[in-house]
């Protein structure tokens, strides 16, 4: 991963709580999200026939387009506006250091 990809607006990616959640009760294991996401965030758990969030740090911050690819609405994300506020506050804090 390039150094640029490890930060978002100068904030280390691992400090940003942005990643999808999969409701395993709703997931039918179709793999649409696996096919849709170009960043390898998801993987199909062959044993369970469900999708898992395998690489959450590969998820692009504030991107939630894969949720629309799920026919059962099994994918959710943190609140976008709350995340934007968090990013603004954390970014200001890091710049002040």
Give your account of this protein's structure.
The structure is a single chain. The protein has 97 residues and is α+β, with helices and mostly antiparallel strands. The protein has a single domain (4-96), classed as Alpha-Beta Plaits (2-Layer Sandwich). The chain has helices at residues 32-36, 80-96, and strands at residues 7-8, 11-12, 21-22, 42-45, 50-53, 75-76. Strands 1-2 form a two-stranded antiparallel sheet. Strand 4 and strand 5 form a beta hairpin. The two termini are 26 Å apart.
CATH architecture label name:
2-Layer Sandwich
Helical amount among residues, as a percent range? 10-25%
CATH topology: Alpha-Beta Plaits
Q: Biggest β-sheet: count, sense, barrel?
A: 2 strands, antiparallel
Strand fraction band? 15-25%
Quick recap:
With 97 residues, the chain is α+β, with helices and mostly antiparallel strands. The protein is built from two helices and six strands, in the order βββαβββα. It has one domain: 2-Layer Sandwich (Alpha-Beta Plaits), CATH 3.30.70.
Notable features of this structure?
97 residues, alpha+beta, Alpha-Beta Plaits, two-stranded antiparallel sheet, elongated
What topology does this entry show?
Elements lengths: L6 E2 L2 E2 L8 E2 L9 H5 L5 E4 L4 E4 L21 E2 L3 H17 L1
Antiparallel strand pairs: 1-2, 3-6, 4-5
